Amino acid sequence: MSGEKENIMVVLSSPSGVGKTTLTKKIQQKYQSFKISVSHTTRPPRSNEVDGVDYNFVNLKKFEQMIEENEFYEFAKIFDNYYGTSKQNVDNIIKENDIIFDIDWQGTKQLSKFKNLKLIKIYLITDDKIELKSRLLKRNQNTNEEIEKRFKAFDDDIKHWKDYDYILVNKNLEVCFKQIESIILDNKEKKNLLHLK
Ligand code: 5GP
Which of 9, 25, 78 to mutate to test the pocket of ligand 1 (most atoms within 8 A of CB)? Predict the structure, then answer.
């Protein structure tokens, strides 16, 4: 995998419920050049999710086979399910597009080991845990037990903020989106300048 042309790779991580998936989708909608890296997962689809769009939903046997055949750049077990980034998907996208990864801190650590990848790593947090809990409840995508698990994982998750290049506090979605945009544009510009030399 190599960042061909001036295409960039953005990693967006956060504890569950901070707004990462919404922001990832907003970036893709506004910037045609961006494609989202669609992960493989053993988690069952939620009612609003589409196979091949939100995730590639696979069973455990298939996922284990992909691990065995070294088909992932990274994978992790999160909340009892496996999630992974397929090499083939990423290699295809980066030839023509910028790429955005919605992955956790474990995946970010693994991707960072590929020194040829120039990743821009952004970590999103919230300073309002009450709001976080109400967001997890409102989105109505998990059982109460799962919501509790995700809420409790917050403190462990944020311990990994140091692995990232930028830390953003998502107090307001629009403001946060603008901050991500300016990080992206700044990095694109740097790449283009390098390209001109
Ligand atoms: P969810 O079940 O809410 O869709 O995702 C749970 C967590 O898994 C989120 O933090 C998300 O960023 C992370 N995740 C999704 N895909 C991947 C992946 O391919 N690799 C890793 N390491 N984490 C992922």
Answer: 78
